[in-house]
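Agenda item 2: FE2/S2 (inorganic) cluster complex prediction
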Amino acid sequence: MGDVEQVEQQHDVEGDGFSRRTFIKGVIATGASVSASSYVFKDGSVVRAQAPGSVERLVTVTVNGQQRRVDVLPEETLATTLRYKLGLTGTKIGCDRSECGACTVLVDGVPHYSCSMLTHQVRGRSVQTIEGLEAADGTLHPVQQAVIDEQGFQCAFCMPGFVMNMVALVEENPSATRAEAAQHLSGNLCRCADYNKILNVAERAVELSRRS
Ligand code: FES
Ligand code: FES
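Presented output:
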């Protein structure tokens, strides 16, 4: 038996029932994954510790009406969390730097570039993505129906961002004109330059929303 092991075993015997060695053995046995920096030993038991200035990684966010508890890194963007932690891949990442609008989602009803917002900023807030637009009975949101009616996109990579921004448009301005829609959507780019048809969609969405 090596010196180190002997010393550690001695700690096991001399300690008050719970040693670092016991804890590590337990973690290995259960296959649990922990961050050692998040735990301390106190009065013989293991307790969570929050280092000064550190950020709690477990975040609760309401996404499409459901509370989701997710482990996020301090610098993780909302787009990353949505796509790669929650599997909501309808939200696209284009430029990843606030230029194209492909990642647009609604936070408390307001459109935001999710590539440029930290998930920690939306703790306890309500996020809506394109997956959350359809009603439970399968009825499409007026904006979704407008896309189908007008066949407004070519490759459609930009579509989820445009659609989410149009959802905000019809909420904010139920009688928006084509020009007002164009201004409202100016933060979204379409690399296929399908803007004429996209504005047809917006006009149709306004019309359908007024009717519904
Ligand atoms: S991916 Fe967010 S603005 Fe382009
Ligand atoms: S339809 Fe292709 S990027 Fe907009």
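Discussion summary: Residues 62 and 86 are 12 Å apart (CA to CA).
Owner for follow-up: CH.
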